[in-house]
């Protein structure tokens, strides 16, 4: 996928999401685990653009999401455009702080 970013340039990105062991709960549920952007492209809207395209693709597949990634949780907390995709039974984390605190405890 090619996505325009701030400043008029564009990037090509491959977005990977994982249904992992959650598929038995609901066949079309995606656990969004991690978002990473090269340091040279940070703070230019690249991460948000990738997450937005992944969420739009999940919507097209009539899927739901579980937000495990701190960046995705933060993105979702700042917009209502994709709240309909959040899985009611397994929503994941509501914001970046909650997601990061769990990761800190796990690695800590």
Automatic annotation (TrEMBL):
<keyword id="KW-0808">Transferase</keyword>
<protein>
    <submittedName>
        <fullName>Putative GNAT family acetyltransferase</fullName>
    </submittedName>
</protein>
<feature type="region of interest" description="Disordered">
    <location>
        <begin position="88"/>
        <end position="108"/>
    </location>
</feature>
<dbReference type="GO" id="GO:0016740">
    <property type="term" value="F:transferase activity"/>
</dbReference>
<dbReference type="Pfam" id="PF14542">
    <property type="entry name" value="Acetyltransf_CG"/>
</dbReference>
<feature type="domain" description="N-acetyltransferase">
    <location>
        <begin position="1"/>
        <end position="87"/>
    </location>
</feature>
<dbReference type="InterPro" id="IPR031165">
    <property type="entry name" value="GNAT_YJDJ"/>
</dbReference>
<dbReference type="InterPro" id="IPR016181">
    <property type="entry name" value="Acyl_CoA_acyltransferase"/>
</dbReference>
């Amino acid at each position: 996928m090619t996505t325009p970013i701030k400043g008029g340039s564009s990037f090509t990105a491959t977005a990977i999401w994982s249904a992992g062991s959650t598929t038995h709960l609901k066949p079309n549920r995606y656990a969004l685990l991690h978002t990473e952007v090269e340091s040279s492209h940070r703070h230019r809207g690249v991460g948000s653009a990738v997450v937005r395209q992944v969420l739009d693709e999940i919507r097209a597949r009539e899927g739901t999401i579980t937000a495990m990634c701190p960046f995705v949780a933060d993105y979702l907390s700042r917009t209502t455009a994709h709240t309909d995709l959040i899985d009611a039974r397994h929503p994941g984390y509501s914001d970046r702080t909650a997601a990061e605190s769990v990761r800190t405890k796990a690695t800590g």
